[in-house]
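Hey, I'm writing a tutorial for new members on how sequence and structure tokens pair up, and I'd like a real worked example in the thread rather than a made-up one. If someone can provide the structure for the chain below, I'll link this post from the tutorial.
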Amino acid sequence: MNDDPKTLRVRFAPSPTGYLHVGGARTALYNWLYARSHGGSFVLRIEDTDLSRSTQEAIDQIITSLRWLGLEWDEGSGVGGDYGPYRQMERVDIYQKAVSSLLEEKKAYRCYCTPEELERERGAAREAGRPYVYGGRCRELTAEAEKELREAGREAVIRLRTPDAGVTVVHDLVKGDVEFDNSLQGDFILVRSSGVPTYNYAVAVDDAAMRISHVIRGDDHLPNTPRQLLVFKALDEAPPQYAHLPLILGPDKSPLSKRHGASSVEEFRIQGYLREAICNYLALLGWSFDGETTLFTIDDLVEKFTLERTGSTAAVFDNEKLLWMNGHYIRSMEVSELAARMEDFLKDTRLAGMTGTDGRPTIMDMIPLVQEKMKTLADFVELTDFFFLPLEFEEKALDRLRKDQNAPAVLKRVAEVLDDLDAFDIETIETALRAAADDMEIKTGKFLQPIRIAVSGKTITPGMFETLSMLGKEECLARLGASRNLLG
């Protein structure tokens, strides 16, 4: 297979056993970028031969996450195409046809060894201190011997006849040439006794049938590659080019998992991260343009991405850097676009359906007040929920209010000042409250803090004068009164 843009085809082939992990998302992104930068095709294939763990719910979730990231595929699950079906358990007939040819050509054979016999072989290998490799007991069975084993109730798996010596070389676009000793591969299983294909067999058949030109995946799959190459050779098919990406690690240098915090695309979406930030950050986990540039739009990535700039050492996931990057994208976004993102995000929060109703502020009203303070979309909820919900005090805020000796007098004075205002715009409120602070000989910042807590229940809010104006005179006076009562 070649690198002609007209025939370049890559695939993302997740196993549907859970949410889309960020490692899988990084793999999907690199495949998508490579296809888009070369004018090729990006294929989504579902590898669901692990029947005990694969679920339709996981398939749906993977598809949802990919679409949320903007990684649309050209053919595959939910889209169709010329090389379908794109779900492995719907391709069993294809695997059976291919393995039948391998059996006829004596490139594969039926193995009737029982689990107990195989376990004895493994035990002997352990005792001898050597790697376990299937001993080939059934390699040269006669037709008569096979018949007797079947009549005795033995079930058969199908194994590939592999070389006993020599090496299989993986020509990797990231790692260079990697050699694997054929004697350690053994005659591995292609099809289980149930008729379900094994991973390495199904993957090779699919990559050949779907004319995949490049396989870009995590380097935890590198040990599988020699077996897949042996299947390609048996099928008389040219293999794709391989590129194995470095693993993503947590801060403790162990594989990224839930113990490090959010590790799936869905978790980051729920926490209020933007797809632009996720894609930008994932692109940098293993790839670099010039060693300095950090921020890339998706168009930038398509233009600049190459496998040659992909490193071979593991990348460490830095939540703080992702958070910084997400905040940058939020602060750089047009208000109308951020409002549209917020509207979608708020559907799953405690503010669902509240903005812009019954005289409450709209999202568009609020964003200019909080955009500079936001690092995630969830920050909008934390910064503005008091505008829409009954007043509740954070424990820390209430404790600070009670300890502020000036608070009762300040709140009383502010209530009087605000009640006397004819206009309730930001400028009028600011002028009046700064004058009141001067009259009481209290610095403005210290003067505003009990007001902030009294009307919001929080220590951190949008600008105080903007907040009061947005709440309106009646609501401000009601909250100030309730807080004064609370202080006795």
